[in-house]
Design brief:
171 residues, mainly beta, 7-stranded antiparallel β-sheet, 13% helix, globular
Length: 171
């Protein structure tokens, strides 16, 4: 069953206005990690993370079609989604930068498939790269969660172009 429709009317706003409207939706902040063919690691900051299904356990995130990392994430069998803690804004900024080795000086442990799990993260999800859906200027990745862990600490959030820390969830 297809839900795609081609009858949408052209938008009456520009990209900047659309981005400003989207910035009013507070999101969590993640760093998605995987491994390159040479054994080194790749990681990037993403706020486009969401749950999809409890059974099977599925999550999604999206990546720009033009991202240089798209072929790596598309081709790898696994990735880890690290949900950043409230005190990890510097990590979010670091993994959003165009620098050679984003992992220099970053503390992490390896998942069972050998992928980086960032120390201090509020939660992490090790995912099998289940499916990908090109939509607009992004690709939606759906991951089937094989392992996850949670630590009840304030999480990092993003709203209006700024990072902030949430309050800890009741225990």
């Amino acid at each position: 069953m297809s839900t795609r429709t081609s009858s949408a009317t052209p938008p009456e706003f520009d990209t900047r206005h659309f981005r400003n409207a989207l910035s009013q939706f507070a999101t969590g902040v993640t760093v998605i990690t995987t491994r390159l063919e040479d054994g080194s690691f790749l990681g990037l900051t993403a706020s486009s993370f969401n749950s999809v299904s409890l059974d099977p356990p599925l999550v999604l995130w999206s990546l720009a079609q033009g991202a240089s990392s798209l072929p790596v994430f598309s081709g790898n069998s696994h990735y880890v989604i690290n949900v950043l803690a409230g005190n990890q804004a510097a990590l979010a900024e670091r993994f959003a930068m165009r620098i050679e080795n984003r992992f220099d000086g970053v503390e992490f442990v390896l998942s069972r498939t050998g992928l980086p799990i960032l120390k201090g993260a509020a939660a992490w999800f090790e995912c099998h790269n289940r499916s990908r859906y090109p939509e607009g200027d992004h690709v939606i990745f759906v991951g089937e969660v094989e392992q996850c862990e949670v630590y009840p600490v304030p999480a990092l959030a993003y709203h209006g172009g700024k990072f902030f820390s949430t309050h800890a969830a009741p225990g």
